[in-house]
Amino acid sequence: KIIVATQAIFNDLNMNHEIDLAALICADTFLNMPEYYAEELTWQLLIKSISLAKNSIIQTYRPQNPAIAFASKLDFTGWYANEMQKRKIFLYPPFSKIIKIIVQEKKQEDAISFSQKIFQRIRQGIKERKLTSQIIGPIVPRIPLVRGKYRVHIIIKIIDNKENIDDIMKLVPD
What we know:
The chain has about 170 residues and is an alpha/beta fold.
């Protein structure tokens, strides 16, 4: 049995299927997502599909990417060590907490305007309280229009565990 499919099928498959060959076309698609966990998603997809088949073919434009290189060798320890080292350097979870605020409006200019107001209020609150938290944004996502509403993101990275998420969220207007 040979399987050629999108990543969606791997959510429905279980280990009882006997697959002789899994072909992973454009295995690096998730790496283009502007998310800190893009490599983790790629890794999960590759490991899941490789584990289901007796043999696997991985087609990629970036074979040196750690998620692809470690997955192709089934090197769990190497991938984990690499991922944790990177997350520690850039202060991504589990070395911080991340809040993503998504502003949605029917008009893109309204979404941008409202998100800028939220951003300024939170940034001012962080500064006044002398917090170490970082705020990033407003960011228009790669796919800005979802279900007829324009989206804009604001990211808050809480670095110091003593800083309370609830206190920071109080800075967000209703």
